[in-house]
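Worked example 2:
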Amino acid sequence: MANITFIEASGQSTTLNLPDGWSLMQGATANGVEGIIGECGGSCACATCHCYVDDFLASVLPAPAQGELDMLDNVTAERRPNSRLACQIKASAALEGGVVTLPECQE
């Protein structure tokens, strides 16, 4: 389990305790976090779960796979060095305390 904080574009902050193995996209959509759509259901095929990870998460997450990098080319909001797809980030104790900021738009 990991406590992950999601910061919506509005500034609303929500901390969720996510079970190991759940993607951040699954956790956000299951708990009503505004700003993640996840149209493809987590198959890395739509880029509607674009997020910005904090420095801590960036330091502990594995590098994105080529498929994720390809999909990040399709994001609507500004792509930044810390852009990731929430469907590709799996919760684990190693992510405890991480913060994810959501962009103003996904589509």
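The mean pLDDT is 96. The chain has one domain: 2-101.
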